[in-house]
Amino acid sequence: MAGETLKRLATPDTKQMALASHIVDATRRGIQILNDLLDITRSAFGTDIPVVRAPMDMGHLATQLVDEMRSLSKGRTIEINIVGHTEGAWDKARVGQVFSNLIGNAIQYSFPDSTIFVSVGETPDGVIISVHNQGSPIAAGNLLTIFEALTRGQLPQTDDPSSSHLGLGLYITKKIVMAHNGDMDVASGESGTTFTVRLPRK
Predict the structure, then answer these.
(1) Are residues 8 and 81 both part of a single domain?
(2) Are 131 and 117 in contact (CB under 8 A)?
(3) Contact 128, 88 (CB under 8 A)
(4) Res 142: pLDDT
(5) H or E element at residue 183
(6) What string of DSSP letters covers 104-173?
């Protein structure tokens, strides 16, 4: 709250504004790490991640999250494609985590200046979401454990080695998908890596 207040009081394009923004961003990262740890603790005790379904438009949410993630894209381009009927009943906040985790993962493991493709389309009973990044292929052995807790891929040499990611994002993402009675898979090769999520409308 103090960081947000400093941002409102600061003059744009000043050092004070930059420092306040760093405080806010660091605090949000810390909160996200704590939330991830709470989710994994629930899972360890056999409790499903809670979801509260309400009517929403998956295409609209995807557009919103892509717009937010573009500011963190480190020079990558993020393109989005929405096709068909994308309305249904899902937990908006939790599905927002799915998009944030998958797009953030794509940014982290894609080649610099490459393009990330996000798509949302309809299926007979729900929606299908995919996030594709152009990066080094994931080894076949790692694909078997990629959705397990505390599993991280090999970071690109150009990325910040001090990344605060704990290897929980994909684990929690799959838990959220399963809580919606959906399914999730990954394919990786020379053309890049694609995560695909299928969620029923009900």
Answers:
(1) no
(2) yes
(3) no
(4) 87
(5) strand 183-189
(6) HHHHHHSPTT-EEEEEEEEETTEEEEEEEE-SPPPPHHHHTTTTSTT---PPPTTS-TT----S-HHHHH
Q: Please give the mean pLDDT across all residues of the chain.
A: 84
One domain for residues 109 and 144:
yes
Query: Does residue 128 sit in the same domain as residue 93?
Result: yes
pLDDT the model gives residue 157: 44
Q: Transcribe 94-113 into DSSP letters.
A: HHHHHHHHHHHHHHHHSPTT
What residue numbers bound the domain in which 36 lies? Answer: 1-47
CATH (domain of 84): 3.30.565.10
- What single-letter amino acid sits at 38? L
Residue 138 has pLDDT above 70, yes or no: yes
Q: Would the pLDDT of 194 be above 80?
A: yes
Contact 84, 122 (CB under 8 A): yes
Q: What whole-number percentage of the chain has pLDDT above 90?
A: 50
16 in the same domain as 87:
no
Rounded average pLDDT over 177-201 = 96
pLDDT at 45: 55
Same-domain status, 38 and 125: no
Q: Both 132 and 75 in a single domain? A: yes
pLDDT score, position 196: 98
Strands 126-133 and 87-90: unpaired
- CA 59 from chain centre, in angstroms, equals 15
